[in-house]
Amino acid sequence: MAIVIHGADEIAKMRVAGEIAAGTLAYVASKLRAGVTTKDIDNWVREDTARRGALPSQLGYKGFPAAVCTSRNEIICHGIPNPEHVLVAGDIVNVDVTSNIDGYHGDTSATFQIGEVSDDARKVTDVCFRCLNAGISVVRHGARLGDVGAAIMEIASKEGCGVVEEFGGHGIGRKMHMAPHVPHNGTAGRGVRLRAGMTFTIEPMITIGHPRVVQLDDGWTVVTHDGSPTAQFEHTVLVTKDGYEVLTAQRTPLPLIRPGFLEGEQAGGEPALAGPA
């Protein structure tokens, strides 16, 4: 599959799609707390995406049964929303939103902490967020995809964390998944050369334990082999002549730490961790 170099009109449409995906993710973030179910998240994504005049790209994609992926704790990716999966204090959950408007897609995700979480859960979330930003920071016209993976690996390795190799980022535009594949490991100076007008996602999946994966019988859900916590952050990125543009940037930082109390209970402090920039 050939890599698409987008023109100005296409990029303008992708900016709109990215802004919608980012807005829906922020809307979900504002409602997350202990006591909600992952099916609630799916409902919110459907409602908010429709309100913005878009479609949820994931719904029905290769038979996927929901409008969003909700991946809790040891789930690396592709978690299916379920009315019986209730968020509780101590959980971390990744919410992966993809929006389609006017035939173009925007894709973004973030991992949220529900109340007080374990040291491992806190660490893997922080390291993953830093890995995302490191990968984005090296994007520019003339760079190579290996530079992205190398930047991610450098941070993860220093922190003693694993990088999942079976899944990576992807080109995006008129289709949700296009060339190129964007590995989150690699060697600087190797791989596809980046050109202005390319658009793709960077979405590292980081583990506390060994990054070996197991796919569950539903054919979608992927978990860590040892049940250890894992985190993911994702942005849609445009390569520009001078560097990059994050098409799914948040207008204000996402509140990644969400209340760990049920509605009606006493609310404690609610610190905010800077969201994907």
Automatic annotation (TrEMBL):
It is an enzyme of class 3 (hydrolase). GO terms for molecular function: initiator methionyl aminopeptidase activity; metal ion binding; metalloaminopeptidase activity. A divalent metal cation 1 binds at D96, D107, E234. A divalent metal cation 2 binds at D107, H170, E203, E234. It catalyses: Release of N-terminal amino acids, preferentially methionine, from peptides and arylamides. Pfam families: Peptidase_M24 (PF00557). It comes from the Bacteria. Residues 13-241 form the Peptidase M24 domain. One of its GO terms (biological process) is proteolysis. Substrate binds at H78, H177. Its EC number is 3.4.11.18. HAMAP family: MetAP_1. Removes the N-terminal methionine from nascent proteins. The N-terminal methionine is often cleaved when the second residue in the primary sequence is small and uncharged (Met-Ala-, Cys, Gly, Pro, Ser, Thr, or Val). Requires deformylation of the N(alpha)-formylated initiator methionine before it can be hydrolyzed. This is Methionine aminopeptidase. It comes from Enhygromyxa salina.
